[in-house]
Design brief:
The complex is a heterodimer of chains A (212) and B (97). Chain A has a two-stranded antiparallel sheet with strand order 1-2. Chain A has a single domain (10-208), classed as Arp2/3 complex 21 kDa subunit ARPC3, CATH 1.10.1760. Chain A is built from 7 helices and 2 strands, in the order H-H-E-E-H-H-H-H-H. With 212 residues, chain A is mostly helical. Chain A is globular and about 45 Å long. In chain B, 28% of the residues are buried. The two termini of chain B are 33 Å apart. Chain B has one domain (6-96). Chain B is mainly alpha-helical and 97 residues long. The chains are: A mainly alpha (212), B mainly alpha (97). At the A-B interface, helix 1, helix 2, strand 1, strand 2 and helix 4 of A face helix 1, helix 2 and helix 3 of B.
């Protein structure tokens, strides 16, 4: 759901750029304080994975496709600020080199898919594991819900920005966007669970790194 | 010979995903679909320039190959960018402490 240029008005562009650039700057400072030796390759790999997995659009209901967001996976493995940094780097490269997502819409895309995607999924994951436990099963269930939430919330925010910009009325686009992304969110949850169980089976120590 | 580290394997798997990218569905994504259905897709403005637009490497006739090349290149660039940035942040931290 990379927003192209032309969908957002100046006020929305300015607001989202301000929030996102502030968030990314703070995230870089947090990373400076907390990054350990093992975080360095994990950050690179998360970014490479989010980028390559996002290229693989899967068909969803009737002539529509979706792709992995990856924010929940990045946030669960790295922590919310680390996840935000990874997502922001991917979105910047996609925007500047691949013309995916508009230059003016970059702030909104980082806000929806990076900022909110990572923070909502991270804290949802932490909250749910407190209830269902941090055993393998509890982790995977929590990750599924967190991943679904990240996609759903990003799509709702996207609609709110479009409505605030006068591009589309709320009553028209919210049900359509929320509906299709509720489905895409299920696939997001499944992929997130699959990757996490792979990491658990092969390098479970990566899951116990300090969260950034 | 240097030992193979976990992230060498992981990066290889990411590159493998990029190689599979021509298999991706070419249907519009959720937002594009809604923009088409609800009639605001024409509001979209193209970027003022094109580098590797739409994940198709320019100047290559075979589209699958052009997509693979774009995907592999993008995966390596983003890995190098983030790995390098994290390494710089990390080494600066060590100098301070």
């Amino acid at each position: 759901m990379h927003i192209p240029d032309g969908f957002l008005n100046i006020a929305t562009v300015a607001t989202t750029y301000t929030i996102s650039s502030g968030g990314v700057t703070y995230a870089a400072r947090e990373a400076g304080k907390k990054l350990g030796e093992k975080h360095v390759p994990l950050m690179g790999i998360m970014a490479a994975f989010v980028f390559s997995a996002q290229m693989l659009n899967f068909p969803i209901a009737g002539g529509t496709s979706g792709h992995l967001l990856g924010a929940a996976l990045a946030a669960i493995l790295l922590g919310p600020w680390g996840g935000l940094l990874v997502m922001a780097c991917v979105l910047i490269v996609q925007c500047l080199i691949f013309q995916d997502g508009g230059l003016l819409a970059l702030g909104a895309n980082i806000f929806n898919m990076g900022f909110v995607g990572c923070f909502l999924s991270y804290y949802a994951y932490v909250a749910i594991t407190k209830v269902v436990g941090t055993e393998r099963k509890g982790m995977l269930v929590s990750a599924f819900v967190a991943a679904w939430l990240s996609v759903f919330a990003a799509s709702v925010l996207c609609v709110i920005e479009l409505v605030a910009s006068g591009t589309t009325p709320l009553g028209v686009s919210l049900p359509a966007m929320a509906g299709v992304h509720a489905l895409i969110g299920v696939v997001e949850g499944l992929i997130t669970v699959a990757v996490l169980s792979f990491v658990l089976a092969t390098r479970s120590d990566l899951l116990s790194l300090q969260k950034v | 010979m240097k030992r193979i580290k976990w992230w060498h394997v992981a990066l290889f798997l990411c590159l493998l995903l990029a190689v599979l990218s021509p298999l991706a569905s070419s249907s519009p994504d959720g937002l594009e679909r809604v923009a088409e259905d609800k009639g605001f897709i024409d509001d979209a403005r193209d970027s003022p320039y094109e580098a590797i637009a739409d994940y198709v490497f320019p100047g290559i006739e075979n589209e699958a190959l052009a997509t693979i090349l774009a995907g592999v290149l993008g995966t390596l660039v983003i890995f190098g960018f983030v790995y390098g940035a994290a390494r710089i942040v990390r080494s600066r931290k060590r100098e301070v402490s």
